[in-house]
Amino acid sequence: QVHLVESGGGLVQPGGSLRLSCSSSGSIFSFNAISWYRQAPRKERELVASITRSEITGYRDSVKGRFTVSRDNATNTVILQMNSLKPEDTAVYYCNALRVTDSGLSDYWGQGTQVTVSS
User: Fold this and answer.
1) Per-residue confidence (pLDDT) for residue 29, from 0 to 100
2) b or e along 90-119 (b: 16 or more beta carbons within 10 Å of the residue's beta carbon)?
3) 93, 9 in Cβ contact below 8 A?
4) What contacts 5, CB < 8 A, 6 or more positions away?
5) Running DSSP on this structure, what letter comes out for residue 90?
6) What is the pLDDT of residues 73-114, one digit of tens each?
7) How far apart are alpha carbons 41 and 53 in whole angstroms?
8) Cα(83)–Cα(76) distance, rounded to whole angstroms?
9) CA-based angle 33:72:45, to the nearest 5?
10) Count of helix runs (H) and strand runs (E) in the chain
11) Amino acid 100: pLDDT
12) CA distances from 55 to 20, 86, 106 (A)
C-alpha cells in the first residue's frame, strides 16, 4: 500500500510563497506521474501541476510562471514551489500518484494540505 503525505501548507499574504512537499512511502520512480490537485470550497477538484517519471512537467494556465513542480527521487519527494500567490490559489492541495501496469491503472491520494492566501 502506498502512502502519500503532503506538508508545507499554511497562511500566506498575497504575493508570498509556499513550498509544498509530497512524501511517498514507496519509490516515486515507480509512478508514471505525480500530480498536484487543489480543491477550493464549493468548487471541483482541479489539476494544478504534474511531473512524469522522465521529469516532463505540465501546469494549468493560471499557475504557469508562478508554480514549479520538481521531484527528488533520492528522498521520494515531489515539491510544489508556489510563488506570487494570489487569493484565488486558496484551496486544499492534494498529491496524486499514478501508476500504469499491465494489470491496469492505479492512483493514490494524500490527505491534503490547506493553503490560504489572505491579507
Assistant:
1) 87
2) bbbbbbbbbbeeeeeeeebebebbebebee
3) yes
4) 22, 23, 110, 111
5) -
6) 899 999 999 999 999 999 999 999 999 988 899 999 999 999
7) 31
8) 23
9) 40
10) 0, 11
11) 92
12) 18, 27, 20
Digit-coded pLDDT (tens) for 26-78: 888 889 999 999 999 999 999 999 999 999 999 999 999 999 999 998 999 99
Whether the Cβ atoms of residue 69 and residue 76 lie closer than 8 Å to each other: no
Burial-class residue 28 by CB neighbours within 10 Å (0-12, 13-18, 19+). buried
Q: How far is CA 81 from the centre of its chain?
A: 9
Q: Enter the C-alpha cell of residue 43.
A: 468548487
